[in-house]
């Protein structure tokens, strides 16, 4: 087992477990004991829940024209400049690694199509910095994840930048039933890294990140994890927006019709959005005592602080200016490996105190700077 930087090695697991509920699992590095996290008899703690997709708290940043892909966006005139958005650091551990690596393990619980599994794999593979860096004018998944490099712990170490897919398990037979509670999730996680949607899915959350305390089953390590559910048939308006209409009718300024998803499947592209939010939350606030705003029991974390923002000019019910595939008509804002396309939520950038879709370090030209005001 690899050692975790600056924290007792017996307390961490250098992996993240993901469970995809017809769900994902992820396991990183952080010490609950060193950071003062209480252990309620090895009970899991729920963290970020993907909330209402139209919440637009905080200041959002710019999205300049990127070749012929962009769709013209609407703007709202601001009368008063918004205050800088701040997610205070509460001195807890983040998912930092001595070798800058976090291993990802995935469990598919239930029936997933080939396209769905491929889309998830492509997203994970796209998180790692490519051998040949894309030019500054091209937004990529890797440069989106690079925003987390600005999140540092008390030792000055940043969130691990190399997220490596390291294993998958498929459970097509729903071995623990079609409704999972927290104990079921724990049991799946201890099988491998895994987790599924739980009883609050579509009612309270689109996904969740939490953790298991050290035990013999986890090799004495902390085990952070993420679960995300396929909401395409149950609550697409809540968990798949903007690829589905909002469930609420009071949004007068909401877009006229849903956007087309890059993969062609609303469910999996909705999962990618929620997965991206939760990975960012799990990496920057794995134990509910690192980077967050508000109440620790219901923290607003990295991407949650920018909820509903996917491009320049975003406001309630409108995701912002996006790129559009000229062939399929699908909307996206980031390129992945081999040119695959994804729509990723913006997250809070601690370097600029704004919401951003790409790392400010990735944009050397003001002409293409994603962090300029619209």
TrEMBL record:
Q: Where is the signal peptide, in residue numbers?
A: 1-34
Compartment annotation: Secreted
Mention any Pfam family matching this sequence: Phi_1
Give the record's GO CC terms: extracellular region
Q: Which of UniProt's keywords are assigned here?
A: Secreted, Signal
- Give the PANTHER family listed for this entry: PROTEIN EXORDIUM-LIKE 2 (PTHR31279:SF79), PROTEIN EXORDIUM-LIKE 5 (PTHR31279)
| Family as reported in the entry's similarity comment | Belongs to the EXORDIUM family.
The protein depicted here goes by the name Uncharacterized protein
């Amino acid at each position: 087992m690899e050692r975790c930087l600056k924290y007792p090695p017996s307390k961490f697991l250098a992996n993240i477990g993901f469970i995809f509920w017809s769900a994902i699992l992820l396991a990183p590095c952080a010490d609950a004991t060193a950071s003062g996290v209480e252990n309620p008899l090895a009970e899991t703690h729920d963290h970020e829940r993907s909330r209402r997709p139209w919440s637009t708290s905080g200041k959002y940043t710019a999205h300049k024209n990127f070749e012929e892909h962009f769709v013209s966006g609407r703007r709202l005139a601001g009368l008063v400049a918004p205050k800088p958005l701040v997610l205070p650091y509460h001195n807890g551990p983040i998912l930092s690694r001595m070798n800058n690596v976090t291993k990802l393990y995935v469990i598919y619980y239930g029936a997933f199509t080939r396209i769905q599994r491929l889309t998830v794999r492509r997203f994970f593979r796209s998180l790692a910095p490519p051998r040949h860096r894309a030019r500054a004018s091209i937004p990529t998944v890797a440069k989106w994840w690079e925003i987390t490099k600005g999140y540092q712990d008390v030792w000055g170490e940043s969130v691990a930048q190399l997220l490596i897919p390291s294993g998958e398990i498929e459970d097509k037979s729903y071995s623990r039933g079609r409704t999972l509670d927290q104990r079921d999730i724990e049991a799946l996680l201890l099988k491998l890294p895994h987790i599924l949607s739980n009883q609050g899915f579509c009612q309270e959350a689109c996904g969740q990140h939490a953790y298991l305390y050290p035990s013999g089953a986890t090799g004495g390590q902390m085990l952070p994890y993420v679960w995300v559910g396929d909401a395409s048939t149950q609550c697409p308006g809540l968990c798949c927006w903007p690829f589905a209409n909002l469930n609420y009718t009071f949004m007068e300024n909401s877009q006229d019709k849903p956007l087309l998803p890059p993969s062609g499947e609303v469910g999996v592209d909705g999962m990618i959005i929620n997965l991206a939010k939760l990975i960012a939350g799990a990496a920057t606030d794995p134990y509910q005592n690192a980077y967050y705003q508000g109440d620790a029991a219901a923290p607003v974390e990295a991407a949650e602080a920018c909820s509903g923002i996917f491009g320049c000019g975003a406001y309630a019910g409108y995701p912002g200016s996006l790129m559009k595939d000229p062939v399929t008509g699908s909307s996206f804002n980031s390129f992945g490996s081999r040119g695959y396309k994804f729509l990723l939520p913006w997250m809070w950038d601690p370097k600029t105190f704004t919401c951003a879709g790409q790392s400010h370090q990735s944009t050397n030209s003001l002409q293409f700077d994603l962090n300029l005001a619209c």
